[in-house]
Amino acid sequence: MSRLSTLGRPLIDALRSAQGLVLVVTGAGISVASGIKTFRGSEPDAVWRQNDVANATVASFERDPVGQLDWYLDRFAAVDDAVPNAGHLALADLELQRAERDLPYLLVTQNIDTLHEQAGSRNLIKVHGSADRLRCGRYGCRLGAPSGSLSRSRVDLETFRRSPEDATLPRCPECGSPLRAHVLFFDEYYTEHDDYRFPEVEQAAAEAVLMLFVGTSFAVGVTSLLLEAGARRRQPMFSIDPVGTRLPASIPVESLTAPAEELLPVVVLGAG
Prior knowledge:
This protein is an alpha/beta fold.
């Protein structure tokens, strides 16, 4: 038996026996093998360095919509050409595997890239929004919160990127307000927009019989909610991360220290 098969055996066995909802939660770590930098952490190339966090706020948008959108589009450019890696593909296979057995499965991602969709994942919640969409900055507009957005492909961004200024700032085709990134800002709540589907995440936390965290730093609110629910209900919880999981001893998560793109294909094959 290979090292990865041995490492993944507890998770393989848990997946085989899970008759209820399997909830998978992915963070930036799953996309590193696709060439996308991590979005948090102390690494010098992390996208969300501490001095950048202030840019990703409602206050920043209201103060400087031109500068903020230009800043976000720089970051979106880093994910536009990425392709799914073996970790994304394995999770799509896991969803199909469970669907063939008529067993429930849900993938919740903190990532705003589109790699899970490209890989074939369908039962997917993007709890932090999506880089391929924009929305009106005016609350209540048909294309703004709480339920509207539009594809980035429908917006003329080339003129703005060549000369980012108020005169070229993309505006809502419905009301003329500035467009903003369709992502969760640091000073917003998960309930800000229907697309984040947070009530469904809360329901999944209450129903899951197994939780699998992949490539997450456990540094955001949604992971805290899920960890607390899993610990309270004493459900099996696993974390796949190449540097291991750093959590309090009171949180019973079994850490599988390996890159997701290496371990997940082995686990899904073994669980099939």
